[in-house]
Amino acid sequence: MAGVVEAKLAELGLTLPDVVPPLASYQPAVRSGVYVYTSGQLPMVDGKLAVTGKVGAEVTAEEAKELAKTCALNALAAVKSVAGDLDRIARVVKVVGFVASASDFTGQPAVINGASELLGAVLGDKGVHARSAVGVAVLPLDAPVEVEVQVELVEA
Hints:
By secondary structure, the protein is α+β, with helices and mostly antiparallel strands. It has helices at residues 4-11, 61-83, 108-123, and strands spanning 29-32, 35-38, 44-45, 48-49, 89-100, 130-136, 145-153. The protein contains 3 helices and 7 strands.
């Protein structure tokens, strides 16, 4: 039976995906005490990237914002894989977003808003977080965006 968070995802027309398998030697998420840290999540859907390239060149800022939303959804799947239930999230503590940027692109914060807005829509006040949005030269697989999330859990 789906919990409150997954019911909210369904209400928004979203489905929690399977956890994206690691591309190298790491885990999608690890738990330390009451915190869960996700690895960087790419905008993978059904095992592949729909879009590749630099934001501000091959990828528009609007497309990248949607991709950041997909990254956040993948991060929630990774959190569930170690927490067992998304309803255990007490709050999102920090989001770090990386944007593969054309040399003159400066809209990284607006792109990562896709992830932040999804977390707020799904988790309400528990989704309010600290954040960094960073422009980088290139990301794995030529992904336009990557997002990592840290959450605090309610004790079981």
